[in-house]
């Protein structure tokens, strides 16, 4: 969901996980001139066609082919992860975005899936405090953003498995702890 805390959570995880990097879906938006406009004049940013998804997949696959050379190992990460002496060969990529699980070519790549949710009122409140370029036009949230969120969330619920839903109204530290502990358990299983 928009303004659910995806980027904040990803950045906090990056600081405490070993050899961790982030790829952000927002970096793959098409220029405004290439984004379609509907009959109401709304720019259709909350759809897959507004993004260079093939380029995003290429970027992820490139990282997967050479994670050790991505420049993600930092002294800060090594000092803060739970057991650094056992993680020198572990590389973690966090891919964060709002339409990740609705794009087929990405679905085979995920080890873990997390989906942050927010109720309508909280999402609208948070969205109203953000400045976007181009700016949201009046009615954009109700006329495009929220309906597209519901559409893609319903598709996700029908088609994807192994998704962990997270309540974006929970404190950030609680969300961080939950996801971090889950990732550490997954790393432990992979080592066994």
UniProtKB/TrEMBL annotation:
Belongs to the uridine kinase family. NRK subfamily. Pathway: Cofactor biosynthesis; NAD(+) biosynthesis. One of its GO terms (molecular function) is ATP binding. This is NRK1 kinase. It catalyses: beta-nicotinamide D-riboside + ATP = beta-nicotinamide D-ribonucleotide + ADP + H(+); beta-D-ribosylnicotinate + ATP = nicotinate beta-D-ribonucleotide + ADP + H(+). Keywords: ATP-binding, Kinase, Magnesium, Metal-binding, Nucleotide-binding, Pyridine nucleotide biosynthesis, Transferase. Transmembrane segments: none annotated. It comes from Crypturellus undulatus. GO terms for biological process: NAD+ metabolic process; pyridine nucleotide biosynthetic process. It holds the Pfam family AAA_18. InterPro entries: P-loop_NTPase. One of its GO terms (cellular component) is cytosol. The gene is Nmrk1.
């Amino acid at each position: 969901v928009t303004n659910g805390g995806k980027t904040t959570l990803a950045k906090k995880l990056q600081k405490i996980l070993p050899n961790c990097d982030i790829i952000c879906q927002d970096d793959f938006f098409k220029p405004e001139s290439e984004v379609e406009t509907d009959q109401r004049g709304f720019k259709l940013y909350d759809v897959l066609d507004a993004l260079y998804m093939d380029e995003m997949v290429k970027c992820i696959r490139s990282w997967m082919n050479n994670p050790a050379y991505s420049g993600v190992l930092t002294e800060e990460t090594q000092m803060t992860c739970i057991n650094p002496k056992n993680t020198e060969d572990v590389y973690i990529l966090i891919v964060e975005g709002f339409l990740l699980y609705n794009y087929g070519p990405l679905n085979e790549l995920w080890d873990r899936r997390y989906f942050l949710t927010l109720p309508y009122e909280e999402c609208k409140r948070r969205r109203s405090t953000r400045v976007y370029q181009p700016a949201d036009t009046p009615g954009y949230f109700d006329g495009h953003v929220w309906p597209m969120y519901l559409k893609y969330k319903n598709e996700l619920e029908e088609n994807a498995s192994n998704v962990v839903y997270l309540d974006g109204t929970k404190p950030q530290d609680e969300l961080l702890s939950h996801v971090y502990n889950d990732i550490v358990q997954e790393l432990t299983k992979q080592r066994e």
